[in-house]
Amino acid sequence: MKQNEIKIKIQNLNFFYGEKQALFDISMDIFKNQVTALIGPSGCGKSTFLRCLNRMNDLIPNSKVEGAVYFDGKNIYDPQVDVVSLRRKVGMVFQKPNPFPKSIFENVAYGLKVQGIKDKYLIEQKVEESLKMAALWDDVKDRLGESAMGLSGGQQQRLCIARAIAVEPEVLLMDEPASALDPIATKKIEELIFELKKNFTIVIVTHNMQQAARISDYTGFFFMGKLIEVDTTETIFTKPGKKETEDYITGRFG
Amino acid sequence: MYRHLHEELEKLKTTSLKMASEVKDSLKNCIVAFQKMDTDLAQEVIDRDNLINSLEVEIDKICLRLLALEGPVASDLRFILGCMRASIDLERIGDEAANIAEATIVLSLKPALPFYIELGRMGEKALEMLEYALDSFFKPDPEIAIDVCKMDSKVDLLNDKIIKEIIAYMIKETPAIERSVYCINIARRFERIGDLATNIAESSVFIAKGINIKHYCQFDNR
Ligand SMILES: Nc1ncnc2c1ncn2[C@@H]1O[C@H](COP(=O)(O)OP(=O)(O)O)[C@@H](O)[C@H]1O
Ligand SMILES: [Mg+2]
User: Fold this and answer.
1) Superfamily of domain B2-209
2) pTM for the full model?
3) Which CATH number goes with the domain that contains A75?
4) Which among A147, A229, B175, B180 is placed 20 to 30 Å from B148, CA to CA?
5) Which residues of A touch B5 (CB under 8 A)?
6) B5 in reach of chain A (CB within 8 A)
7) Which residues neighbour A90 within 8 Å (Cβ) at sequence distance 6 or greater?
């Protein structure tokens, strides 16, 4: 059964890279403890939209945001919002695994230390917990001191997920987290996402439609900066409401 | 990847059309054979059943391949499911036509009974239903499907009426009992063909709108 508690409410969101408008009047709800997948042809604004949800786009010069993104009812674009604490609550995992050139342990402990946690025992406990949640603990428990760069691509990505969840975010944004991985590593990430939604709200960009169909509860279809349709994943893949969605997912595009 | 999907879907559509037209011919011929007591034509209907059966197997194979290999979604997925269902219904209609043809061969040996004409008309009604159902299926046009559902209740009434007449006749004309029982069977089979045509019409609504009207005969959205 679907839970219907709204975690993030996006209202009339526009986004500009300088003069160029990349997102047009997007409104949608992201539900708590559900996986929401964003699909659409490349360049349609999925990553831009994802980055709007934790204000990662703030870093881009000349960019401009209009509209509102309510996180637990509070607009994250209010001037008094503390962006650092927002990004702690809304963590992000990127397409290419990007571990730091440090030990496996240090990678996961990093965010905790940045937060000022000094208790060695607490950090160890959190690192173990996060690695377990990311289904990586058994792979690495005997070599936590070794460099993260020695891990396989799939393991590195799970390490990045462990790093992201160590600081106990509420929402995880994932931008094509499995696109650089082989099918087995991809499968593991997909299974992991399924587990993670018990504790987190997940928004995932994927160019792989079958992946979206497998792992998500809701799917939004973006096209040319617009959100064409968002509905339960079942509806999108069995009887989408819009012809553009139908054409895209059945490959009759353009 | 998609090109292959679309080619396979095209193949599914052509094979389904072929099966539909074979079944339609079979039904048409079994009615004419009955009306004219033409045993050659009846034999042709019986012989054609093999071809219809093999087309059903062929459609099954195409659908299995499509589902296993192509990851079809949305209207493509609904079309595949619709074709699988329709092929089962069509195959049964083919069987019924062959059974009616067999009965015709038996009946041709003895004089006709008065209700043969009405029975033939009932067959024509069932054929008309099938034609409408296939029209709605391949367009797909869910409005036509609703017409088919409405026609089905008429065929049902006709069936009840004819069977009553036959029974009344049997009571009086005991030498005609055997022929009369055959005729009751034929009426039942035409009625069944009407039901199967209705199923096909329902599948067409599923393909067009993604909603299931089975057992309701109306669009009850979502
Ligand atoms: N940093 C940037 N500066 C200017 N334009 C950008 C930038 N990032 C993305 N864009 C443009 O914004 C549009 C949406 O891009 P993006 O959000 O990356 O799409 P997607 O993730 O769906 O592939 C594209 O036209 C892209 O070229
Ligand atoms: Mg992107």
Assistant:
1) Phosphate transport system protein phou homolog 2; domain 2 (1.20.58.220)
2) 0.87
3) 3.40.50.300
4) B180
5) 251
6) yes
7) A53, A54, A71, A169, A170, A171, A172, A173
